[in-house]
Design brief:
Elements lengths: L2 E3 L18 H8 L3 E5 L2 E4 L1 H20 L3 E2 L5 E2 L1 H6 L12 E4 L5 E4 L4 H8 L13 E8 L14 E11 L2 H21 L6 E7 L6 E8 L5 E6 L4 E4 L6 H7 L7 E15 L1 H6 L2 E3 L5 E3 L1 E7 L1 H11 L17 E6 L4 H16 L4 E4 L5 H11 L3 E6 H6 L2 E5 L5 E4 L1 H9 L2
Parallel strand pairs: 1-19, 4-8, 10-13, 18-19, 18-20
Antiparallel strand pairs: 2-3, 5-7, 6-7, 8-9, 9-17, 10-11, 11-14, 12-13, 12-14, 14-17, 15-16, 20-21, 21-22
Helix pairs in contact: 1-8, 2-5, 2-8
This protein binds one RNA strand through helix 10.
Length: about 425
RNA sequence: CGGGGCGUCGUAUACCGGUAGUACGUCUGCUUUGGGAGCAGAAUGACCCAGUUCGAUUCUGGGCGCCCCGACCA
């Protein structure tokens, strides 16, 4: 669906944010009708929110496909057996499990990540060096029993993650891909409008390896503290700030670093053979020797990314979406006040823009100008096109850029020409 | 999980040991129509369970829920 009449959009905007939301991202997304809070750390995507979410997903998907990613979809329900093999089933090892049980009493888990089932599955697919490298990925719901959900959509208990896993022959082949993945990630953050403020950040490797890389977007609402090197656009996570080896590896001068709060919008890990060895994922090399597959994992949460954009690119009037992830390209607003000529003209503009392939949200509601403008500002679609008696008389429609407030007047054909360039 | 705070119409807020007011939204009517309109009317509310009390939305205890700080974040 590339268009929508606002009279049929069931979500309503609100003047005030709910008192239980402090985070700006949640306040704006709820006020504009993009999301609904189901419970702490659990949000529903409403029509506008879903559209933006899907746009973010598309951007990520395109970049993953470009570097050889192959999309698939794994189950959320998890068999304990495979997790026991890597020692990640017990609540002592992993405290964020949501666990449930079968009617017959058998235990199940709701996946918080997918290294185990995928590695296990790939044993059927990988047996020779000829099968490598390979890069399966998915957009899939993760469940994490966070001790504390916080910051609106930033840290939730149920969320979709794009997780890509690389299966390589050795660390050299792995590192080549790791660097390609890092470049793809940079492109993703640029495309969604966060390029200026997102830094590839040296971080601890968790339980997998000594170091990993996070993509951190500088933002006051973030929960991480990073140290930014503006010259190289790199950063260092506070957790490894005092590690001398980090400076040797990166060549960063500790003295020039600037402290900032940031949101982790993506991360990439070298997993090495930690999972392939535990689960027996091996391949035969050219000499006929069995070797464990060398792995990596690469995650991005599209909803967190959407929330980060909401947090950073909004203004006092509401959301300001970049064209790449806006729910619609154009917000067509008719100010007919019941005037049939204006209505007819607006309908015509709606039909023609749609026919030209432009995604349009058409505010055909019987509401006053002030309310329509306020809603339009709140929702944050990049371009507002106004159809009213005034614009009909002048022969050109008023076009207002949401981000800048810049206003121009264009005929329908000029408008279509402009928009089809995007 | 430790600490703190908070639960009142759909939303945001107020007051009160004697069953609750305002604003926005909603409904009806009239007026208005380029920046969240005006007038008149209407409907809608105390998280749950105990206790104290003649009487509890108010006080006490417990539960549940939500937010914030911290810890955690594979």
């Amino acid at each position: 669906m590339t268009r929508m009449r606002q009279s049929q959009l069931f979500t309503k905007t609100r003047k005030e944010a709910p008192s239980d939301e402090v985070a700006k991202n949640a306040q704006l997304l709820i006020r504009a009708g993009f999301v609904h809070k189901e419970m702490a750390g659990v949000y529903d995507l409403l029509p506008l929110g879903l559209r933006t979410f899907e746009k973010v997903v598309s951007v990520i998907r395109e970049e993953m496909n470009k570097i050889g990613g192959v999309e698939m979809h794994l189950s959320a329900l998890q068999d304990p057996a495979v997790w026991q093999k890597t020692d990640r089933w017990s609540d002592e090892k992993v405290d964020s499990w949501f666990k449930t049980s079968l009617k017959n009493g058998g235990e199940l888990g709701l996946g918080f990540t997918h290294e185990e089932p995928l590695t296990n599955l790939m044993r059927e697919q990988i047996s020779s060096y000829k099968d490598l490298p390979t890069y399966p990925y998915q957009f899939q719901t993760k469940f994490r029993n966070e001790a504390r959900a916080k910051s609106g959509l930033m840290r939730t208990r149920e969320f979709v993650m794009k997780d890509l896993y690389s299966f390589s022959k050795n660390s050299t082949e792995h590192m080549a891909f790791y660097e390609k993945a890092a470049e793809a990630y940079k492109k993703i953050f640029e495309r969604v409008g966060l390029g200026d403020k997102t830094y590839m950040t040296f971080a601890s490797g968790g339980s997998f390896s000594k170091y990993s890389h996070e993509f951190q977007t500088e933002c006051e609402a973030g929960e991480d503290v990073i140290y930014i090197d503006d010259a190289s656009k790199q950063a260092i996570n506070k957790e490894v700030y005092d590690d001398a080896e980090v400076y040797k590896t990166t060549g960063i001068n500790k003295a020039t670093l600037r402290e900032a709060k940031a949101i982790e919008v993506g991360n990439i890990f070298t997993l090495s053979t930690r999972f392939s060895e535990a689960l027996g994922l091996k391949y035969k090399n050219q000499e006929g020797t069995e070797v464990p597959v060398f792995m990596g994992s690469y995650g991005i949460g599209p909803a967190r990314l959407m929330a980060t954009v909401a947090e950073l690119l909004s203004d006092a009037k509401g959301l300001v979406w970049p064209k790449t992830i806006a729910p619609f390209a154009v917000h067509l607003v008719e100010l007919s006040a019941g005037n049939e000529d204006v209505k007819k003209e607006a309908d015509e503009v709606y039909a023609q823009l749609t026919a030209a392939g432009v995604e349009v949200l058409f505010d055909d509601r019987d509401a006053r100008a002030g309310e329509k403008f306020a809603d339009s500002d709140l929702i944050g679609i990049p371009l507002r096109v106004v159809v009213s008696q005034k614009t009909i008389a002048s022969g050109a429609f008023e076009c207002v850029e949401r981000a800048t407030g810049h206003t121009t007047h264009k005929t329908l054909s000029e408008l279509i020409t402009d928009l089809s360039h995007v």
